[in-house]
Amino acid sequence: MQIFITGGTGLIGSAVTAELLGAGHSVLALTRSDSSAAAAQQAGASVVRGDLSALDVIRRAVEQSDGAIHLAFSNDFSSTEAVTASIVEETNAITAIGEIFAGSDRPFAVVSGTPWIPGRSSTESDPLPTDGIVGGRGRTVTATLALAERGVRTSAIRMPRTVHNNGTGGFAGLLTQIARQSGVSGYPGDGAQRWPAVHALDAAVLFRLALEKAPAGTSWHAVGDEGDAVKDIAAVIGRKLGLPVQQLPEESFGPLGEIFATDQPSSSAYTQAQLGWTPTHLSLLDDLEANLTA
């Protein structure tokens, strides 16, 4: 299949692109800069130039593709307004892809996030949150899955808060960035709250499996580590960077502070059983230990 992909040169996207090409598929990547276009082409993908706001470019690329994966997001968490604007842009792009695929039974996998359920690990059957700072993404993914009723083989790949590779990525990467800037490896709350994680190379395999065989309208969990205590993550970061480790107020972590302080473990038992997906790469803590440098 020729697969159209947004965000194909990021941490997750570069792994997905390599996985698809290695499995014999071709990749048509949306790229917004000369450097990302060069990276995609060097990996073996074809490219179209544009960003998520280039809806006509996206529509033309999708029309010539056998399937699609959406990964791109601005990742501007500097303010609530910036996050909202990013979600609107993302929603418009996803909607454009879905409209082109309607009635075709072509596969369309969208990136999502694992939900958090008080008192237990979330599962694939739990609904996505639709309120809070990122609630708009949950509403968009839910609407996209409903396109199964219009002949699109949609699937949602729910990613944990940290998708990592070579000691960076996701919420753990943000903690590292904040630690470098502040001189303290901090964590909100008592640090006992748990974050799930997955290695990017493992997540890439799940995206491929979903394109190849996931039924329409289904959700899957790309979870390798069910839940690492945030204090344990901060401890590794502090040790590797040579910084003190301590509790910090939620507001120290910007608009994501409330989410950082939330206990949000997640399970992928159903995904592993149904799609035959097995994480095999380094856990988050082992990846940080092996690759994080001061």
Task: State the main characteristics.
294 residues, alpha/beta, Rossmann fold, UDP-galactose 4-epimerase, domain 1, 7-stranded parallel β-sheet, 3-stranded mixed β-sheet, 41% helix, globular, Epimerase_deHydtase, NAD(P)-bd_dom_sf
Give a description of the structure.
GO terms for molecular function: aldehyde dehydrogenase (NAD+) activity. InterPro entries: Epimerase_deHydtase, NAD(P)-bd_dom_sf, NAD(P)-dependent_oxidoreduct. Pfam families: Epimerase (PF01370). This is SDR family oxidoreductase. Residues 3-81 form the NAD-dependent epimerase/dehydratase domain. There is one protein chain. The protein has 294 residues and is an alpha/beta fold. It folds into two domains: 2-162 and 198-225, NAD(P)-binding Rossmann-like Domain (Rossmann fold, 3-Layer(aba) Sandwich), CATH 3.40.50.720; 164-196 and 226-265 and 281-291, UDP-galactose 4-epimerase, domain 1 (Alpha-Beta Complex), CATH 3.90.25. The chain has eleven helices and twelve strands. It has a seven-stranded parallel β-sheet with strand order 3-2-1-4-5-6-10, with helices on both faces. The chain has a three-stranded mixed β-sheet with strand order 7-9-11. A two-stranded parallel ribbon has the order 8-12. Helix 3 packs parallel to helix 4. The longest helix is centred in the N-terminal third of the chain and has 22 residues, at 80-101. The protein is globular. The model has no long low-confidence stretch (mean pLDDT 94).
